[in-house]
Amino acid sequence: MNSTIKCVILDDELLAISYLKLLCEQIENVEVIKVFNDPKIFLSEINQLDCDVCILDIEMPGMSGLQVAEIISNSKKIIFTTAYKEYAAEAFDLNVVDYVRKPIKIERLNQAFDKVKEINAHSQKKDFIEWNSNIGKAVIFTNQIAYIKTSEIDSRDKEIILKDQSAIVLKNLNFKSLLEMLPSKYFAQVNKKEIIAFSSIKVFSTTEIITNIPLDNDNFLKLHIGETYKNALQEAFGKS
C-alpha cells in the first residue's frame, strides 16, 4: 500500500488556495492537512505540523515564497507555484522538489507529487541511489561515492566522483533530495555546491576539509566549509 503524502499549502489568495486544495484532493494518496494565506503564521506553525511537502506560492505581499523557503528548506520538501517563469533559477538554487507554473493543471501537479514519492522511496534505500544520469538510469552504491559537487555545466545536475576516480552526472537533482537518499551517518554537505563522504576526509577543521581525493598536481582536494554547514558537520563528528 502506498503511504499518503501529507502536504501544507501557502498562498496569499484564498481562491488559489481553494483551487489548489481541490486539485490535491483529486490525486491519489495526497492529503492536505492545513492551508495558510499568511507567511508569518505559516512559519510560526510549520515546525509543529507532520507534513511531507509544503506547496508555496512565490509572489506574496510582505514575504515571498522564496524567503519562506530559505527558512524551511533544510527541514521540509518544497514545491513552488507561481505565474512567473523568471523565478525558476532561484527556485532550483533553493533545492526545491519542483517548480509548477500557474495556471496549475492537475497532470503537472501530479508530476510534482510523483517526484516527492520518488524521493521518499529513495530515502529508504540507504545502500544505493537510483536516478537518471548522463549514461541513462543508473544505480550507484553509496559506499563507492567519494565526493559530490554541483555540475559546472548545469547547476541543476550533480557530479558524483567515485572512489576509483570515475565520475557520473545525476540529472536535474537538488542537494536536499540527494541528501535524503544518502545515509546521513556517512555523508554531509560542506557548502552550497559540495557534499563529502566521511570516508574521504583526512583532516577536518572549522573552516576546511582536506580529503584523500588526489588531484592532477599530486595534491589532494580541499573543501571550504560554508558558515551555514559548520554546526551540522561538528555534530556529525561529535564536536558540538
UniProtKB/TrEMBL annotation:
Gene Ontology MF terms: phosphorelay response regulator activity; transcription cis-regulatory region binding
InterPro entries assigned to the protein according to its UniProt record, in alphabetical order: CheY-like_superfamily (IPR011006), LytTR_DNA-bd_dom (IPR007492), Sig_transdc_resp-reg_receiver (IPR001789), WalR-like (IPR039420)
PROSITE patterns (alphabetical): RESPONSE_REGULATORY (PS50110)
UniProt record, GO biological process: regulation of DNA-templated transcription
Pfam families referenced in this protein's UniProt entry, alphabetically: Response_reg
Keyword DNA-binding: yes
Residues carrying 4-aspartylphosphate: 57
SMART domains hit by this protein: LytTR, REC
Keyword list, A-Z: DNA-binding, Phosphoprotein
Gene3D superfamilies: 3.40.50.2300
GO cellular component, one term: cytosol
Keyword Magnesium: no
Residue stretches making up the Response regulatory domain: 6-117
Annotated protein name in UniProt: Transcriptional regulatory protein NatR
Organism: Chryseobacterium aquaeductus
